Amino acid sequence: MHIFYSIIAMAGLTYLLRSIPFILIRRPIENAFLKSFLAYIPYTILASMTIPAIFYATKNKWIALAALLVAVFFALLNKGLIVVAFATCLTVFLLNWI
Q1: For residue 77, is pLDDT > 90?
Q2: In a domain, 31, yes or no
Q3: Would you say residue 62 lies in a domain?
Q4: Apex CA 70: angle with CA 64 and CA 74, to 5°?
Q5: Contact, 58 vs 96, CB < 8 A?
Q6: Closest by alpha carbon to 51, among 88, 76, 83?
Q7: pLDDT score for 8
Q8: In a domain? residue 32
Q9: Structurally, how many domains does the chain consist of?
């Protein structure tokens, strides 16, 4: 029964955190700085969750660093997600094989 209350509390808190911005901000945001700042938040959150996972995905931290560098290189070349993921996986596979 204790777990049920915890699940209800987490669901309520999640709903509250997602609904507060809609309640407080009724007009479109016109400030250019604030709009550009808010545009980068999803990328920042994605990077903060992905990069630590990269270093824990392999046993060797140097191989993980090499894979991260390959991923950044291909991403800067504007390659698609499939190409970046394939190059990164291939890098990890080949460096583990050596």
Answers
A1: yes
A2: no
A3: yes
A4: 145
A5: yes
A6: 88
A7: 94
A8: no
A9: 1
Structure tokens at 64: 């993980």
Q: For the chain, what's the residue count?
A: 98
53 has a pLDDT exceeding 90? no
Q: Which residue has the tokens 């698609």?
A: 80
- The full 3-state SS of the chain, as one line of letters, equals CHHHHHHHHHHHHHHHHHHHHHHHCCCCCCCHHHHHHHHCHHHHHHHHHHHHHHHHHCCCHHHHHHHHHHHHHHHHCCCCHHHHHHHHHHHHHHHHHC
d(CA 60, CA 66): 10
The range of the structural domain enclosing residue 67 comes to 2-26+39-97
Alpha-carbon distances of 96 from 18, 51, 63, rounded to whole Å: 42, 19, 8
Residue 16 in this model has a pLDDT that exceeds 80? yes
**Does 33 fall in a domain?**
no
In angstroms, rounded to a whole number, what is the distance separating the alpha carbons of residues 85 and 75? 10
CA separation for the pair 57, 64 (Å, rounded): 7
In this structure, what token pair is assigned to residue 61? 């931290």
pTM of the model: 0.61
